[in-house]
């Protein structure tokens, strides 16, 4: 039996695993006792990874050879790799020649490894000459990115996992960490057991498993987060609970914010947020007066048309109270996907460039062009996720390349996504699994390796970079994602007849070495981190050349990466939900994750035991709504929004507030059927959700849609 150290591919906690294998078969998995993210623990998903990689599951679910669909509505047929990549290069070159580089769009994934991301970013921005490259990280962390940059000056979570044990107050807002980040939550439970005086405040419209064990749960109305934080600052100012010395020494812009929150009186805030004034005061006191307060937050803040404002208003509280840059304190975004952070590090999004450089900065563009050996990189921001599919639906983007993600289930407003995939002239889907809804729209399917078969690196929520290693050979003819990008780039360069950056990468390590050199002198400088060093232990960035260790905590000296070294308060007004509930659509729909499932279930859905927690998709309603609609438990109801409808069994849950509904995001296909407004078939809860997005982060509003519910 062979043992291989690697990393769990599911979530941003980034747990270390030891893969057990015999020959070409993965036979077991256990937690890596030496990995600083999990010290040997794994959750139900991580501990069953090997069962998703059996020979039987592989045969049933994996894409094992390249497939080509000669015309739509026909069955895809096998094609050899060379012909597949040549055809892809021919089609993309033709589209670029006929319509320009912006007629191509690439939609990637926070589950790709950093090396995969790097090659595709260089291919799209350095060779093709468009910034139309975005990823499902746009649905995950882009509001956190924008929030950090607007206030602290850089996309860098300032805290670390050790702070969980050092905090005196945990302020968990917009995160059900007990289900979405289970191993991190185990650390919280340990910390509370060791220090019972530690307080935990949870802000969430639902009484989640996280909220259920909190000292105080603020069950706010959906979308009122910014007003809550403004109300807390109003109270802090009123009570003298801010830190004027910290504000004066290390920040700018406080006066505008002080003026803004003047109107956020306790009575107004309590009434609008739907909470008791006494709870508002107590939460504020715990946040401001605890020696160290750590905020943990995730999609409840990020997936919102006010996502950036929610992030900045929360960070404002930390700056106003000096709760940052010291042990156990700070704003700490929890990354949803395993490598949403690594993708940002290489600049793998429509508005970013390598190593946290900005597209809008001419000096940064020139630096990246010099690194890649090309005359320039395009200055115009590319289309972000929602914009990219809208542009394809409108006929502007004609060739789409989709890698390691399933937009035909996961993007909001599925009717538009379906139109995009049908209207695009050429769709390439690079995937490990043949079972995703998006595969059905591909003209060309390229089989990719996945967990246990591929090597590279990922970065977790606390900026810690870990090695991912291959334990077994690739399934069938699957190839590594970075290699597919490289081989396509070399063919495309020959057809475009233009100066091409080098894609001469023999190994993922050669990609890594180029990436780490691109970070020299940047906030995330990792020039000191080789594969050899990462093989000894995962490390946090920054880790510049000559460093002996990474930095656990940022901004301890009170200096921030802004032009004047000061953090910036953001005075952004509270805005109510853009799609409020009304007489026609009286319910607020909230979507989210279950404990034992992951994304669109392409991996977790292969295991019967992971359905023990939730066997089927349901809509959860408050018991009073069940009674008012005269629904028996399990009664079939139709959920209808302005964009589409789905059919689901309804169940009562006191954890969901009256006039609200909760549906898990995982089910699609035949398990959760629905219809678009024009009657065409759709699947999954995103038949209902809206394409509205935050104007700063472009992250869509997946946490709220106004719906009506009727017995089916
Ligand atoms: Fe994997 Fe996340 Fe579970 Fe850790 S907490 S084992 S990274 S799914």
From TrEMBL:
GO terms for biological process: cellular respiration; nitrate assimilation. The keyword Metal-binding applies. Keywords: 4Fe-4S, Iron, Iron-sulfur, Metal-binding, Molybdenum, Nitrate assimilation, Oxidoreductase. Transmembrane segments: none annotated. The keyword Phosphoprotein does not apply. Belongs to the prokaryotic molybdopterin-containing oxidoreductase family. NasA/NapA/NarB subfamily. It comes from Xylophilus rhododendri. Its cofactor is [4Fe-4S] cluster; Mo-bis(molybdopterin guanine dinucleotide). Residues 1-57 form the 4Fe-4S Mo/W bis-MGD-type domain. This is Molybdopterin-dependent oxidoreductase. GO terms for molecular function: 4 iron, 4 sulfur cluster binding; metal ion binding; molybdopterin cofactor binding; oxidoreductase activity. One of its GO terms (cellular component) is oxidoreductase complex.
């Amino acid at each position: 039996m062979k043992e291989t150290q690697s990393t769990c591919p599911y979530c941003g906690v980034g747990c270390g695993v030891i893969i057990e294998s015999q020959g070409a078969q993965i036979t077991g998995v256990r937690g890596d006792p030496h990995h600083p993210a999990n010290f040997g623990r794994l959750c139900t998903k991580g501990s069953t990874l090997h069962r998703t990689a059996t020979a039987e599951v592989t045969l049933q679910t994996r894409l094992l050879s390249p497939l080509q669909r000669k015309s739509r509505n026909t069955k895809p047929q096998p094609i050899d790799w060379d012909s597949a990549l040549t055809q892809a290069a021919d089609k993309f070159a033709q589209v670029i020649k006929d319509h320009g580089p912006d007629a191509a769009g690439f939609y990637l994934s926070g589950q790709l490894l950093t090396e995969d991301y790097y090659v595709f970013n260089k291919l799209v921005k350095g060779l093709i000459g468009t910034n139309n490259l975005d990823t499902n990280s746009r649905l995950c962390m882009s509001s956190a990115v924008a929030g950090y940059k607007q206030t602290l000056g850089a996309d860098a979570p300032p805290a670390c996992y050790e702070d969980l044990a050092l905090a005196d107050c945990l302020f968990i807002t917009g995160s059900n960490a007990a289900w979405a980040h289970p191993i991190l939550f185990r650390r919280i439970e340990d910390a509370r057991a060791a220090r019972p005086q530690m307080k935990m405040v949870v802000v969430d419209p639902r009484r989640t498993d996280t909220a259920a064990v909190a000292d105080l749960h603020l069950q706010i109305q959906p979308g009122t987060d910014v007003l809550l934080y403004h109300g807390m600052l109003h109270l802090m100012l009123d009570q003298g609970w801010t830190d004027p010395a910290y504000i004066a020494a290390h920040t700018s812009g406080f006066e505008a914010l002080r003026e803004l929150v003047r109107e956020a009186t306790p009575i107004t805030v309590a009434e609008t947020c739907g909470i008791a004034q006494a709870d508002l005061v107590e939460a504020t006191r715990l946040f401001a007066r605890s020696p160290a307060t750590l905020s943990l937050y995730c999609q409840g803040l990020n997936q919102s048309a006010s996502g950036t404002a929610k992030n900045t208003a929360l960070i404002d509280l930390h700056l106003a109270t000096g709760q940052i840059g010291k042990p156990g304190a700070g704003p700490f975004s929890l990354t949803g996907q395993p490598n949403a952070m690594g993708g940002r590090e290489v600049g793998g999004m429509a508005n970013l460039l390598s190593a946290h450089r900005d597209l809008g900065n001419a000096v940064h563009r020139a630096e990246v062009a010099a690194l890649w050996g090309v005359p320039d990189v395009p200055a115009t921001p590319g289309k972000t996720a929602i914009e990219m599919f809208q542009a394809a639906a409108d006929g502007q983007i004609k060739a789409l390349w989709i890698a390691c993600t399933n937009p035909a289930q996961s993007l909001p407003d599925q009717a538009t996504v379906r139109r995009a995939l049908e209207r695009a002239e050429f769709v390439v889907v690079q995937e490990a699994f043949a079972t995703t809804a998006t595969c059905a729209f591909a003209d060309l399917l390229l089989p990719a390796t996945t967990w246990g078969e591929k090597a590279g690196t990922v970065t977790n929520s606390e900026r810690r970079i870990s090695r991912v290693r291959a334990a077994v050979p690739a399934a069938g003819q699957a190839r590594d994602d970075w290699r597919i990008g490289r081989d396509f780039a070399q063919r495309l360069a020959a057809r475009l007849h233009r100066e091409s950056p080098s894609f001469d990468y023999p190994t993922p390590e050669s990609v890594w070495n180029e990436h780490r050199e691109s970070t020299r002198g940047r906030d995330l400088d990792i020039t000191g981190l080789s594969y050899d060093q990462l093989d000894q232990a995962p490390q946090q960035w920054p880790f510049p050349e000559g460093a002996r260790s990474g930095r656990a905590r940022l901004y301890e000296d009170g200096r921030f990466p802004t032009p004047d070294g000061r953090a910036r308060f953001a005075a952004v007004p509270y805005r109510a939900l853009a799609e409020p509930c009304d007489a026609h659509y009286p319910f607020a729909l909230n979507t989210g994750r279950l404990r034992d499932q992951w994304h669109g279930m392409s991996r977790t859905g292969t295991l019967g035991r992971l359905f023990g927690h939730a066997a089927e998709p349901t809509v959860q309603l408050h018991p009073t709504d069940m009674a008012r609609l005269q629904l028996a438990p399990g009664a079939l109801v139709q959920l209808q929004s302005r964009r589409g409808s789905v059919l689901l069994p309804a169940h009562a849950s006191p954890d969901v507030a009256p006039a609200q509904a909760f549906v898990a995001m995982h089910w699609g296909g035949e398990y959760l059927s629905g219809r678009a407004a024009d009657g065409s078939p759709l699947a999954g809860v995103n038949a209902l959700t809206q394409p509205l997005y935050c104007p700063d982060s472009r992250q869509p509003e997946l946490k709220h849609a106004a719906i009506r519910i009727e017995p089916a």
